[in-house]
Queue: 2 jobs
Job 1
Amino acid sequence: MKVVLFVLFSLIAFSSVAQDADFYREELRFAVDSQWFTMQGDFFLARSSALATTQRLGFPVPEGTMGLIDTFSVYDYHSQRNLPAGRGRSEFYFTAPFGPHDSIVLHIRYRQRIADTALCYIITTVQTWGKPLRYATYSLEVPDYAEASGFSLTDPYVVPSGTSKVYMWERRNFMPTDDFKFNYTLKK
């Protein structure tokens, strides 16, 4: 049975305050092993408003994948605290604090069970913010007992790292038109 892992990230703002928000940078680190796909990354947002506020943000996942995710957490570096996250039918949601003319960095981590070899992280949702990311980095750590191939992001920089291989990508002024996809297999 061919099962594709879809993980979707788009900080979706749930009020008009979001018109001010700017999602301008992401630094994502992925890792795979024989059972799990893990993502941890930093998401950079700014608001130009002179008013302090809180903003409800969402981290949607495709219908039917919520049960595969066993870990989800959000840490706000600015306030130095974990943000409580709720779990909906097809998304996680949380509230982020913004001060006047504020920038925040959110560290999000989740772990999802993988069922097969075709993996995908949906990055095209950046388009919902209406402008490209000024800067984005992506890295994928693959253990030596596995192989990754067929990357949709071109020209990875590859670094051997102990008992794994790390693929890295860097983009500027990046408006993704294709999702981050790759094939993953265990060596026999």
Job 2
Amino acid sequence: MSNNSKSLLKSWEAEIAKMGKDELQYALSFPDIYYPEYLEMVKARLDELSSVPDNEAMKAIVKKILEEYGCPYEVNEKNGGISFMFRGMNFVIFLESGHFLEIWNYEWKKVSLDDDDEVQRLIKAINIANGKCPVSTVYEIDEEEQAIYVSCTASILYQPMVFNLKQYLYTRLLNFFFAHDIINAEMTLMAEREASQQGRNINVKQPN
């Protein structure tokens, strides 16, 4: 295959990836005006989209997986979130448009705003975790309670033809605990270094 042909196929692939079902079906309605290779790619993309379950079917799949994990769950009828307990932590899964699963582990850590040193350690540790871990860690300040709350989140694009969701979701949930471990460990190390530095400073200031 020539470089020009490869470039053309890549441009077709990028174009087709942006098309919805209606556009794909419309293209197939005019087979005489498209290259056979283009139509094959269109058909493959349409088959791929058709194999992705709708929102209700996705809920059923997620519920079944949680049951297989042995995780009791509850469905919030207002926002559609599926709440469950995994390894002692509370999680919520939201099914977004475009077949995305958005996972949240809300407020798993709390630090008082009165402890400025601990707050600074927390923020630094979150930055470190976000650079090392495939889940995102965020924080929110509650002025009324004078506390800072930490949450973690991650998204999955459900592609049944690409991966096993049960196995992949399990791996992603473990990533949340990886983020927890990084943050807790980094904060402990920072506190120890600070205490060690303060001890050295005191020794330096002591008279002979």
